[in-house]
Amino acid sequence: MDPDPGTQAAEHTRRTAGVTFAARLTFDGIHHSYHGKETIKGVSLTAEPGEVLCLLGPSGSGKTTLLRIAAGIEAQSHGRVMLNGRELAGPGVFLPPERRGIGLMFQDFALFPHMTIIDNVRFGLTAMPQKDAIAEAMGALERVGLAHYAQKFPHVLSGGEQQRVALARALAPRPEVLLMDEPFSGLDSRLKDTIRADTLAILRETRATAIVVTHDAEEAMRMADRIALLRDGTLVQAGTSDDLYRRPCNLFAAAFFSEINEFDGVVRNGLVETPVGEASAQGIGEGTPVSVAVRLSGVGVAEKSGSIPARIISRRFLGVVELLSLAVPGTEKLVRARVRADHLRPGIRDVTLKINRQDILVFEKT
Ligand SMILES: Nc1ncnc2c1ncn2[C@@H]1O[C@H](COP(=O)(O)OP(=O)(O)OP(=O)(O)O)[C@@H](O)[C@H]1O
């Protein structure tokens, strides 16, 4: 069942998007403070032409502030913002938002309730003759499959449709770069997947470079060509979702992308001992204190075939999977595992564990 009839309409009537010039947006050594509190601490990062770059991080990590700096709503204290090598903001230069060629779609994509949909979409096209602005706005509405709503007012549209109108409004001036701050956060989870996929398809067609803020690692993995992970105003790691998931640079990055069990240990002979077995600590010096992350999905649980004895302390049924807490010898800490729901028989207490090597990550303690 499709809860949003507008989405179905979009599949049939959406026009291929007009192409924008793909642009490269660069943050170069950006620092920023609010009232003396440093919020961005030297971030350098580039969104390549035509790519979808997700800024990912917990609340307060500085994602929105970076977007606002790119848009020209906020000024950095040091560093430069460049578009195709041209300085938008830097020492002695500050282009106002309307001269940056950057489109914005912020969290509360609020449409103006007293304006028709077409007037909402042509809001940013004031520099054009009215006839051209209407034609451009209609084109943008066709792109998102909602041209038939042009003369309606926002309140008759569903949340998902309003979101698509907001996207049309942001794309109408054909920005070289589109900045989106948590664009799907107001949508219910059933709609979110469809709208996100539609939005991504439209971004690909327009070839606009897009920077999308999210705090949801899965959303970033679904959308991004590259992800930049932020924490406390610093860039932790940037790369593809594969890089960040498989080769996280530290425990924080590992824990952001998967649920983990965490153990402390010390490197001895290139190995580190944990309650769930030995892990390789190649490249880390003898005697170094380390943190070992074991992904929940990497903890195999079997009645007899594993090598580590364990006792099930709790089981939580989550539908497709089951979350287990297990006691193992040598630690007070419970080990958590995520297994297929019908995998273990009801009532079983004593089991064995087998850890998948790929799901063990070892990091030097910082
Ligand atoms: N207008 C403001 N005045 C003072 N401090 C602010 C202001 N806006 C943001 N901050 C602070 O700047 C830091 C970064 O905030 P920012 O909104 O950029 O983070 P974020 O990663 O986008 O968080 P969220 O996901 O919650 O939106 C936070 O510590 C926040 O409290």
TrEMBL record:
<comment type="similarity">
    <text>Belongs to the ABC transporter superfamily.</text>
</comment>
<keyword id="KW-0813">Transport</keyword>
<feature type="domain" description="ABC transporter">
    <location>
        <begin position="25"/>
        <end position="257"/>
    </location>
</feature>
<dbReference type="GO" id="GO:0016887">
    <property type="term" value="F:ATP hydrolysis activity"/>
</dbReference>
<keyword id="KW-0547">Nucleotide-binding</keyword>
<dbReference type="InterPro" id="IPR003439">
    <property type="entry name" value="ABC_transporter-like_ATP-bd"/>
</dbReference>
<dbReference type="GO" id="GO:0015408">
    <property type="term" value="F:ABC-type ferric iron transporter activity"/>
</dbReference>
<dbReference type="InterPro" id="IPR027417">
    <property type="entry name" value="P-loop_NTPase"/>
</dbReference>
<keyword id="KW-0410">Iron transport</keyword>
<dbReference type="GO" id="GO:0016020">
    <property type="term" value="C:membrane"/>
</dbReference>
<protein>
    <submittedName>
        <fullName>ABC transporter ATP-binding protein</fullName>
    </submittedName>
</protein>
<dbReference type="InterPro" id="IPR050093">
    <property type="entry name" value="ABC_SmlMolc_Importer"/>
</dbReference>
<dbReference type="InterPro" id="IPR008995">
    <property type="entry name" value="Mo/tungstate-bd_C_term_dom"/>
</dbReference>
<dbReference type="Pfam" id="PF00005">
    <property type="entry name" value="ABC_tran"/>
</dbReference>
<keyword id="KW-1003">Cell membrane</keyword>
<keyword id="KW-0472">Membrane</keyword>
<dbReference type="InterPro" id="IPR003593">
    <property type="entry name" value="AAA+_ATPase"/>
</dbReference>
<keyword id="KW-0408">Iron</keyword>
<dbReference type="GO" id="GO:0015697">
    <property type="term" value="P:quaternary ammonium group transport"/>
</dbReference>
<dbReference type="GO" id="GO:0005524">
    <property type="term" value="F:ATP binding"/>
</dbReference>
<keyword id="KW-0406">Ion transport</keyword>
<dbReference type="InterPro" id="IPR015853">
    <property type="entry name" value="ABC_transpr_FbpC"/>
</dbReference>
<dbReference type="InterPro" id="IPR017871">
    <property type="entry name" value="ABC_transporter-like_CS"/>
</dbReference>
<keyword id="KW-0067">ATP-binding</keyword>
